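Q: Convert this sequence to structure tokens.
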Amino acid sequence: MTSKKSNVLEVLFKECQKKNDYVFHNILVKEISRKIGVGNPFDVTKLDKKSKLPQVLLDKDYAVIHLGNGYHKFVKGIDKVYHTFEPIQKEIEWKYRKSLLNLYNTSESNVISIANNQRILHHFLFSKDKEFDDVDIKNRPKTYFPHRTKESFEYYFDKDTLITCDNIQIEIDLTIEYQGHVGVFEVKNGTSSDFIVYQLYHPYLYYFIANKKPNFEGKIKDITCVYLIRDEKEDDLILKFWAYTFINPYDITSIKLIKSVAYKLIKET
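A:
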């Protein structure tokens, strides 16, 4: 059964097909959403799993990317817009003492707070050793909490297509920095088989470009993009991490896995 948001996206795509112009604006999104009965039209272009796409887009192999200032574009290549999670490479049992507010709610901010308070973020991000024995988690990195910002930039979609983004909004769930090594995080609750790449790429490019500016002067040594998913199996709390980079900083389709780890939190009495 298709959702109303999916129906709006289907109508949008057919309108763009008629005009042979695959760029569209939020004005058109609002107009179609009103006719179909979608209360929040801004969610229509933010389907974070490819399974949510309408069948016509799946059949034609199209998905949506954002251009900024209310503009969006249908581009060909669903598997370049969305990335399938790789299998978890390593599982770690992490002993901890549950604090008062752990899991008081299941919000994404609570998930990342637990991972941060338990030093798991630091342990995952800054370990270079395959056994994860080379990190002193007592040395705590700097933490920068969720924020939104706007930036204008250009990048390539699959080498040949230049995408120009004007004043595009970038949402970052968390940024941490340690001795010039930067990690940006996207956090979700529940399971998923894939994610939309711009959630990691836009923050990555934002800091990559910032590193060329005078106030940074190349002080950022590297940028790691991390996707964190909170999963629960019976009474077990499991935090799954995937770390990515981009081989070509100016190509959103050049995403590459660095490592993936699942932390099973074991309560201590």
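Residues 123 and 136 are 8 Å apart (CA to CA).
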